[in-house]
């Protein structure tokens, strides 16, 4: 099992903010492809400019093999204060 | 020290505690960010955080600021969840030997928080809700420190 989290406008766009995927995906690229197939608008949005990806709360770039039980988060541009 | 809170806080009391018992630091600078009402156009602000990630990322930046500006101590209190106009969103306090480092570190940390800290900000108003992403001004502000 793995968990996917969407933050900010991505959660509103998808209509969910947290979802479990079982069986888990082996790579980040496979997860992105599955998301894009199920919801093309969300697929475009998570691939969009300024959207970062975190795996187990660490920012990652490009593709990677996902560890068992991974938590993947898609993070649109951040703004605090 | 980094604290995320979900209810309103008293910046004055926080600053009082931050200053108490400090005899090595000659300077404490602070900044308080408040939620703007925008003349009725904004009825509430909602900040989303990523618990476990947001604190770690802010702590990492506070550590870098401490190094860069030779700080003795840093306090960041940041709200998330719904915030009413006029309520404090963020308090940054920095302590150093002399004032210049404290002022600059406070300015730097606020520029970082505005454009890079893991929060997502939604403004609710009579015209609906919109997500607020860093403005061109915010991005210029953080670029000053490169």
What is the strand and helix layout of this fold?
The complex is a heterodimer of chains A (81) and B (146).
Chain A: E1 2-6, H1 9-14, E2 18-21, H2 28-38, H3 40-46, E3 52-55, E4 58-60, E5 71-75
Parallel strand pairs in A: 1-5
Antiparallel strand pairs in A: 1-2, 3-4, 3-5
Chain B: E1 2-5, H1 11-19, E2 27-34, E3 44-49, H2 54-68, E4 73-79, E5 81-83, E6 88-96, H3 99-116, E7 119-125, E8 128-132, H4 136-143
Parallel strand pairs in B: 1-4
Antiparallel strand pairs in B: 2-6, 3-5, 3-7, 4-6, 7-8
Helix pairs in contact in B: 2-3, 3-4
Which descriptors apply to this entry?
A: 81 residues; alpha+beta; Ubiquitin-like (UB roll); five-stranded mixed β-sheet; 3 helices; 5 strands; B: alpha+beta; four-stranded mixed β-sheet; four-stranded antiparallel β-sheet; 4 helices; 34% strand
Short description:
Chain A is built from three helices and five strands, in the order E-H-E-H-H-E-E-E. Chain A is of the alpha+beta class and 81 residues long.
Helix content of chain B: 25-40%
- Helix-residue proportion of chain A: 25-40%
CATH homologous superfamily classification of chain B: Molybdopterin biosynthesis MoaE subunit
- Based on CA atoms alone, the radius of gyration of chain B comes out at 16 Å
What is the spatial order of strands in the main beta sheet of chain B? 1-4-6-2
Radius of gyration of chain A: 12 Å
Biggest sheet of chain A: strands, sense, closure? 5 strands, mixed
Overall 3D geometry of chain B? globular
Summed up, the helix count of chain A is 3
The proportion of strand residues of chain B reads: 25-35%
Describe this structure in words.
The complex is a heterodimer of chains A (81) and B (146). With 81 residues, chain A is α+β, with helices and mostly antiparallel strands. Helix content of chain A is 30%, strand content 26%. Chain A has three helices and five strands; from the N terminus they run βαβααβββ. Chain A has a five-stranded mixed sheet with strand order 2-1-5-3-4. In chain A, a hairpin with a 2-residue loop joins β3 and β4 (58-60). The longest helix of chain A has 11 residues, at 28-38. Chain A is globular. Chain B is α+β, with helices and mostly antiparallel strands. Chain B has one domain (2-143): Alpha-Beta Complex (Aldehyde Oxidoreductase, domain 3). Chain B has a four-stranded mixed sheet, sandwiched between helices. In chain B, strands 5-3-7-8 form a four-stranded antiparallel sheet, with no helix packed on it. Chain B is globular. The relative contact order of chain B is 0.24. The mean pLDDT of chain B is 95. The interface between A and B is medium-sized, with 17 and 26 residues.
């Amino acid at each position: 099992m793995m968990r996917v989290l969407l933050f900010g406008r991505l959660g509103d766009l998808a209509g969910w903010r947290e979802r479990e995927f079982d069986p888990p995906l082996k790579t980040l690229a496979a997860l992105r492809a599955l998301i894009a197939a199920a919801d093309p608008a969300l697929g475009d949005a998570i691939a969009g400019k300024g959207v970062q990806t975190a795996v187990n709360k660490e920012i990652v770039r490009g593709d990677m093999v996902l560890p068992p039980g991974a938590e993947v988060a898609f993070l649109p541009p951040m703004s605090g204060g | 020290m980094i604290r995320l809170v979900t209810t309103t806080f008293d910046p004055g009391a926080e600053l009082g505690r931050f200053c108490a018992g400090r005899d090595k630091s000659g300077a404490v600078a602070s900044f308080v960010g408040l939620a703007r009402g925008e003349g009725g156009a904004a009825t509430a602000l909602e900040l989303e955080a990523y618990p476990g990630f947001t604190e770690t990322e802010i702590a990492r930046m506070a550590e870098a600021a401490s190094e860069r500006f030779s700080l003795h101590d840093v306090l960041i209190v940041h709200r998330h969840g719904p915030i009413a106009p006029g309520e404090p969103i963020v308090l940054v306090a920095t302590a150093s030997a002399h004032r210049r480092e404290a002022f600059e570190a406070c300015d730097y940390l606020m520029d970082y928080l505005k454009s890079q800290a893991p929060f997502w900000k939604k403004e609710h108003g009579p015209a609906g809700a919109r997500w607020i992403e860093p403005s061109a001004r915010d991005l210029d502000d953080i670029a000053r420190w490169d």
